[in-house]
Specification:
alpha+beta, 3-stranded antiparallel sheet, about 60 residues, 2 helices
Length: about 60
Amino acid sequence: MMTESPTLTAMDRCDACGAQAYVRAELASGPLYFCAHHARKHADALAAAAVSVIDETSRLHESE
């Protein structure tokens, strides 16, 4: 269970496909948003280029 409020909301959309974003990567040029699928697909590149990453993919497995 998450103890703090999510940073990303349903209004945040994946820059690759438009699905709900669960990952926000802050680059020197600005933020990029990704769904869980595209965040996994680009994980190596994001790790190398991102200043910071907010990963809320654990929210996909929360039960209500």
